[in-house]
Model the fold of this input.
Amino acid sequence: MLDVKQIMEIIPQRPPFLMIDRVEEYVPGESATAYKNVCINEWYFQGHFPGEPIMPGVLITEALAQTGAVAILSLEENKGKNALFGGIDKLRFKQKVVPGDVLKLEVKIIKCKGPIGVGEAVATVNGKVAVKGELTFALV
Done:
């Protein structure tokens, strides 16, 4: 298990844009499972939406990307690099994510050729799919 400090040793994101709280397990270059505790105090709930706070889909997608970045950037040869979005495919939003939810983020690297790769990403709440799709990344 990795805590926030250990996560920040692998990926470059920092608060308030660090979107994962802990990593339960990871296999360098292959997969990662992380969690985000969705709290009403998050900065984005001030305007998204007053009276009905919903975690923005783009931030759930970013949390998935950061989870995938833990998997790919934990490889020794990728230390000090960054993983940028190269594309988002087949992404579907299945349910709302709201304060109090614990978002489980799972990414499996399914393709990797040179500096480009694809991760199969799934975010769930209480075992129900909230977001699912494929994320393409480019190592820089």
